[in-house]
Amino acid sequence: MEDPDCHLVADADARSSRFYLKAGVTVLAAAGFVVKGPSLLRALDGKLSDLVNSCLQGFDPYSTLKRALQIAVTASGAARAWRIVRRDGLRPWVMSHVIPLVSRLPSVIQQLNTARADVRKDLQRELVKDLTEPRVLLPADGMAEEPLMSLMELRRGLDTKNWSDGKVTGAIYSGEQHHMDFIGRVYGMFAFYNPLHTALHPSLRQMDAEVVQMTINLYRGTASCCGAFTTGGTESILLAIKSYRDWARQKRGIVEPNLVVCVTAHAAFDKAAHYFGVHLRKCNTDAKQAADLRHMASLIDSNTIAIVGSGPQYATGTVDPIEAMSDLAISRGCGLHVDCCLGGFLVPFMREAGFELPHAVDFSVRGVTTISCDPHKYGFAPKGSSVLMFRHPELRHCMYSFATDWTGGIYATPTILGSRPGGVVAATWASMMKHGRHGYVETTRQIVRATRKIAVAIEHIEGIELVGRADVCVVGFGPAAASGLNIYSLVDCMKELGGWELATLQNPPAAHLALTLPTSQNADGFIEDLTRAVAVVRSDTSGKYSGGTAGIYGMAASLPAAFIAESVKVYLDTTLQATEGGSAA
After folding, report:
1. Euclidean distance between CA atoms 302 and 334, whole angstroms
2. Of 485, 482, 455, which is closest to residue 471 (Cα–Cα)?
3. Hey, is 195 helix, strand or coil?
4. Which of 508, 470, 510, 466 is nearest to 488 (CA)?
5. Would the CA dihedral through 451, 502, 291, 221 be positive or negative?
6. Which of 473, 469, 467 is CA-nearest to residue 443?
7. 215 vs 367: CA distance, rounded Å
8. Are strands 226-230 and 386-390 parallel, antiparallel or unpaired?
9. Exposed/middle/buried for 256, CB within 10 Å: 0-12, 13-18, 19+?
């Protein structure tokens, strides 16, 4: 089934028509060539021979061969240089080749090793400070349920205390203990069931499909719209890009695909490009941190499979100009993915809650071909819940993976995972049914109202200013021009004075608070603490707030990416490592 309003389908049909037209022209041309071809070729060969001989008159055979090789090498080098400039940019290419050479120098190796050891030591100290006794060996006889539950309650308490006061950006979106307990009970009922086995678990399959369809309806999908339940926003984004890549290969013959995103797009698009061999092109932003459409248009070419907009983007909360991007996608014949992973269960309810969005972000915008949305954020579902929506089934077919000649039978899965946790599906369905439309309108009203209240207050705090636009649920802020304020020092101060855990940003240096139900109730307290912290940092002459987060992020902003990557590797290694020592029982 096809949606006649989908420009991707229409473009594929048009290309098919052009193919048959060209095929007919080719057949007619071939028929004429059979009659006149030999004489035409002889005439062309004679003219080319005269031209080449006149150009090479006076050269001996060796000089002629040498010049031909020089021309070939020069042409090849020029073509490679053009590809580098067009694809990667000259400076990043040079840095990617120079840094590995520099990192082999003995003095640099020593400094890197010292830095890695320092990072690892700091991380280990931070990660183990509140842990219970490590358990790294299986107990010989297994623990009894009562002491095991006591240990689990203790560990649960450790994982609760850092967010329960409502001073953490994002992460925990509901925070209501009654709701979390209810969702936990539903999760447990289906924890051992697997959506992969549809015949065994028919109601689980039903809930899976109903979550997707309810979400499509929130985004004003047409009858041809469809989707899939995934395990998070990253998987939804990965599958969207995989679908565009395969669609473009099948319908347009693109073998060197590229994807155009704004620099503010989520890092999951970098991951998708890395995983699926898609070249990522990033456009600049305007004064409000929205995508610069003129720059975006300049990056689109015949190999562009899709462009990306955010609603809103993670860093500073701005909603990209989706309608204008739609016009661009239609005119260039490429897809348009809208990343609503963060605002997914806020933006469909904002108008009813009394707020306007600067741009529409749903399927009412004709050029939108895919949308990703996360119920596990403001839908208050458990972690591991996302929905990827498609305007038409043909594009969704490119998401599927199947093996028809496997010895174990036909293996087919719609998403990346094979087995999936049934508890997440059932609990997501239950959360959506429990809240209903009116429930989500009310939570949207609380969160967006607090977000905009903080944004207005920041405009009146001397020394800082808004970065981006607080369109939905994120307030970004940075140092005002000529204020001299170190934003990372301010983040450290907010942690010390009020216990606030803020997200730090870069390019430009900034911080943000992503409001949730718990933090929305602390809007007044946040404004008071922020006003006080700005005054403290601006008057600090002791250098108290020059280290910590400020030192790390200030350094990272000025170091080549290859050196930052070494610290990131240490961080990931450390988080994946079990604590040393401990016992089995």
Report:
1. 9
2. 455
3. coil
4. 510
5. negative
6. 473
7. 19
8. antiparallel
9. exposed
Nearby residues of 214 by Cβ (< 8 Å), 6 or more positions away: 432
> Which H or E run includes 557?
none
List the structure tokens of 195: 């959506």
Q: Are 429 and 211 in contact (CB under 8 A)?
A: yes
Q: In sequence order, which residues have a C-beta less than 8 Å from that of residue 429 and are 6 or more positions away?
A: 207, 210, 211
The pLDDT, as a whole number, for residue 2 is 46
Alpha-carbon distances, residue 255 vs 85, 249, 302, 307, 454 (angstroms): 19, 6, 11, 17, 47
Phi, psi at 136, each rounded to 5°? -115, 0
In terms of Cα–Cα distance, which of 478, 486, 240 is closest to 373? Answer: 240
DSSP structure class, residue 318: P
The percentage of residues in the chain with a pLDDT greater than 90, rounded to a whole number, is 57
CB 183 within 8 A of CB 176: no
- The confidence score (pLDDT) of residue 325 equals 97
Domains of the chain are 21-94 (no CATH), 224-417 (3.40.640.10)
What's the CA gap between 510 and 553, in Å, rounded?
10
Q: Which of 320, 310, 324, 322 is nearest to 288 (CA)?
A: 320
Report residues of the chain scoring pLDDT below 50.
1-2
Distance between CA 225 and CA 6 in Å, rounded? 10
pLDDT (0 to 100) of residue 227: 96
In a 13 Å sphere around the CA of 585, the CA atoms on its Cβ side amount to: 6
List, as one string, the DSSP characters of 122-187. Answer: HHHHHHSTT----B-S--SS---HHHHHHHHHHHHHHTTTTTTTS-BSSS-S---HHHHHHHHHHH
Q: At which residue do the structure tokens 């955010």 appear?
A: 310
* DSSP annotation string for 438-502: HHHHHHHHHHHHHHHHHHHHHTTSTTEEE-S--SSSEEEEEEPTT----HHHHHHHHHHHH--BP
Q: Which amino acid is present at 356?
A: E
Computed on alpha carbons and rounded to an integer, the radius of gyration of the chain in Å comes to 29
DSSP letters for 381-433: PPSS-EEEEESSHHHHHTT-EEESS-TT--EEESSS-SS--HHHHHHHHHHHH
CA 354 vs CA 53, 251, 343: distances in Å: 80, 43, 16
